Predict the 3D structure of the following.
Amino acid sequence: MTETSSAYQALAAALRERIEVVRDRAFFARDPAGHLARLRSVSETIVALQAQLPPPVDPQLMHYLQRCSYDKALAFIEERAA
């Protein structure tokens, strides 16, 4: 596994995690503050991983990440990995 592929795999994992947290309505209902804290944490991880992507980063992917279109960013990464 190359450094580039592992960087994208880590970002994809964080994107999946954030999407799961957003969809976890039971967690939100049970613990709104905890849900927000988890969402904030994984979002910060995504920003940090985004900054570590080796250049050049595809402009379309950067567009998705900068606009927080995380479903689209994940789909973009998964399409390139297939």
